[in-house]
Design a protein that fits this description.
The chain is α+β, with helices and mostly antiparallel strands. The chain has helices spanning about 75-85, 105-115, 175, 190-195, 225-235, 255-275; strands spanning about 5-10, 10-15, 25-30, 40, 45-50, 55-60, 65, 70, 90-95, 115-125, 125-130, 130-135, 140-145, 150-155, 165-170, 185, 205-210, 215, 240-245, 245-250.
């Protein structure tokens, strides 16, 4: 079944603080023509960076894209676009990092939906997932064919939280996945800030895990696992395609997600090459 590409009708405006830089930033998201994909425009320096696997520069505590100039923490916006089935956007940002908002993708979902989602004349690219397995460190990701896109994600946390397993498909993204926030351990905060990270992080935009459980109230009992699904969707959006199939990840992170996306791209590229006359 053919699926039309989609974009937004009106501009969406957002502002907030970068979770790592701690700097205030404003964002204007506009519609883009068919085939444009998602492009970040650094208005402060006048450069554009396309959301592609080739432009990934770092997967440390988020995804940073760069083509000379970098844009950091792009995964939540990309997840919102993927979850809503939006293919083409122009994202104008006046700094080096996207705003964290409340630490989830809910604000991006609300802004994009409020701008009006419209179909375009060209068909979307669809990747049918096959049998793929990728490991990075202690993490593992596998894919296999399925009639629709579904995800299962396992996160291992220290007691008393323990193992969490979350499952989802795109039909529940806006309500069950998008509101899940970035999370981290209270004991990591000082070291992260010393490394120039998490300077904009706090209880208002991070779910913090302490020795006896959550430090601030969770939105879901398995919120960390749900947020991992959110991050996975954003990272896989760098493929520039809709996905159909089943994905399962155990103890993953951005490095594993991007490695999986690159292997999917490699396999799909080989399939395209074999199909050429």
């Amino acid at each position: 079944m053919l699926i039309r590409q989609r974009t937004i009708r009106q501009a969406a405006l957002l502002e907030g603080v970068g979770v790592h830089s701690g700097e205030a930033v404003r964002l204007r998201i506009r519609g883009a023509p068919p085939g444009a994909g998602i492009v970040f425009i650094r208005r402060d320096v006048g450069c554009a960076v396309r959301a592609t696997l080739e432009n990934v520069r770092s997967t440390r505590r988020g995804v940073t894209l760069g083509d000379g100039v970098t844009v950091a923490s792009v995964e939540h916006l990309l997840a919102a676009a993927a979850g809503l089935g939006i293919d083409n956007l122009q994202v104008e940002v006046d700094g080096p990092e996207l705003p964290a908002l409340d630490g989830s993708a809910a604000g991006y979902v609300a802004a994009l939906a409020g701008a009006g989602i419209v179909e375009q004349e060209e068909n979307a690219r669809v990747i049918e997932l096959g049998e793929v397995e990728v490991t990075v460190g202690g993490g593992r990701a596998v894919t296999r064919p399925a009639e629709r896109f579904r995800v299962r994600y396992t996160v291992d946390l220290p007691p008393p939280l323990g193992r969490q397993v979350a499952t989802a498909d795109l039909s529940v993204f806006a309500t069950a996945i998008a509101p899940a926030r970035t999370w981290g351990f209270v004991g990591e905060a000082a070291a992260l800030r010393a490394a120039g990270l998490a300077r904009g992080a706090g209880l208002g935009n991070v779910l913090v895990i302490a020795a006896d459980g959550y430090l601030n109230p969770p939105r879901f009992t398995d919120e960390p696992a749900r947020h991992k699904i959110l991050d996975l969707l954003g990272d896989l959006a760098l493929l520039g395609a809709r996905l159909r199939g089943y994905v399962e990840v155990v103890r993953g992170g951005h490095a594993l997600h991007v490695a999986l996306a690159r292997e999917i791209a490699r396999r799909w590229g080989e399939r395209d090459a074999r199909s050429q006359p």
